[in-house]
Design goal:
Layout (H helix, E strand, L loop, with lengths): L31 H52 L3 H8 L2 H6 L2 H8 L4 E6 L5 E2 L3 E9 L5 E10 L2 E4 L5
Antiparallel strand pairs: 1-3, 2-3, 3-4, 4-5
């Protein structure tokens, strides 16, 4: 009988429950699936980042436009109340507490009864939202040349009110 060669692997002993003395050698994996998975994951990550940036930009733009519209509506409401000679409404609904304490309903009568507001225009695009919110309005009063008024807005509670620029 010949001794076993070094390259030969001995056969496992016969019998139940016998296991080979070593595991099967690892196989080289196909890397194609890994690269496809990484590519799809990277694409999803890029799409999420781009979507977040665009969504944030649209949200900021929407919030800015909403604020411009709201403050312009306050100026329109105030000037509309003056035009309708409803001075109590102009004072109580559209002015901040500090301006209300400075300007009584009689002040409005003294100021606007002789030359009431006959026309006005407020353009939302002219609204300045910097440190202060300023709404310019072109106002025409009876017997006077048109003039620009600038209303400084502030927020009281959940609404904007005029808190400066009242003449």
């Amino acid at each position: 009988m010949m001794p076993p060669q070094v390259d030969e692997v001995p056969a496992p002993p016969a019998g139940p429950g016998v296991v080979a003395p070593f595991a099967a050698p690892p196989r080289d994996r196909d890397m194609k699936g890994l690269w496809i998975g990484l590519g799809v994951g990277g694409l999803v990550l890029v799409l999420c980042c781009v979507g977040g940036v665009l969504g944030g930009g649209f949200f900021i733009s929407f919030a800015d436009n909403l604020a411009r519209t709201q403050v312009a509506d306050v100026a329109r409401g105030y000037l509309g109340a003056l035009q309708a000679e409803n001075y109590e409404r102009a004072r109580n609904e559209y002015l901040c507490a500090a301006e209300q304490s400075r300007h009584t309903v009689n002040w409005f009568r003294d100021h606007y009864a002789a030359s009431p507001v006959v026309a006005f225009s407020v353009n939302e695009d002219d609204v300045s939202i910097q440190q202060d919110i300023v709404v310019p309005a072109n106002v025409e009063q009876e017997g006077q040349a048109p003039r620009w008024m600038r209303f400084v807005m502030t927020q009281e509670g959940t609404r904007y009110v005029i808190c400066g620029g009242v003449e």
